[in-house]
Design brief:
Strand content: over 45%
CATH architecture of the largest domain: Roll
Number of domains: 3
Largest sheet: 6 strands, antiparallel
Radius of gyration: 22 Å
CATH class of the largest domain: Mainly Beta
Number of helices: 1
């Protein structure tokens, strides 16, 4: 157990059977009252943010969060299956836990899953992924990297703006944080 005074941004704690990560921590001293700890907490399973107040003498149960290397296997309706690359255990995440990252998931892709108390919580994509262009307007001779852009549909279904010289079948690198085209893969 840890005291409220030991809490900091980023620490994970267990409250009411759920795991929360501290997004914001504020120690408030009020006149003629006991100090209050104001926490902004993110439920690591659902992503919902809540604000709660605690007394400075309250105790909390810390939760150790761990990033585990996994490989994406497949999805079945709203369930996404991953395999731990160290012990070959399968883990399942829901569509809510995967979130917008599903636009970058490709079978066989290696990434990391955040776990707490041996339960899969969320996933961490690499900063860049390589995806194949499946639909775009044809490029023409003379198109250059600085001459504008056009929409392209990638193998995972996401649409990205790409330079005019990119054609169907090309493999491109996409930034998973912004969803932007980075470069043509060699």
């Amino acid at each position: 157990m840890i005291d409220a005074g030991e809490l900091r941004k980023g620490i994970a704690i267990e409250l009411d059977g759920n795991i929360y990560q501290i997004v914001e921590y504020q120690h408030v001293k009020m006149q003629q009252r006991k100090p209050v700890i104001k926490l902004k907490l993110r439920d690591v399973r659902t992503g919902n943010i809540t604000e709660r107040n605690f007394q400075s003498n309250d105790k909390f149960k810390p939760v150790v969060l761990e990033l585990r290397p996994v490989q994406y296997l497949y999805n079945e309706s709203d369930l996404y299956y991953f395999m731990d690359t160290k012990n070959y255990e399968q883990m399942v995440l829901t569509a809510n836990q995967v979130g917008d990252s599903l636009h970058y998931l490709k079978e066989g892709m290696n990434l990391e899953i955040l776990t707490g108390k041996d339960v899969a919580i969320s996933m961490e994509l690499p900063a860049m992924v390589e995806l194949q262009v499946v639909e775009t307007e044809p490029g023409f001779k003379g198109d250059t990297a600085t001459g504008g852009s056009k929409p392209a549909k990638l193998e995972t279904g996401i649409n990205v703006q790409v330079p005019l010289f990119i054609n169907v079948g090309d493999i491109i690198k996409v930034d998973t944080r912004s969803g932007e085209y980075l470069e043509k893969a060699s």
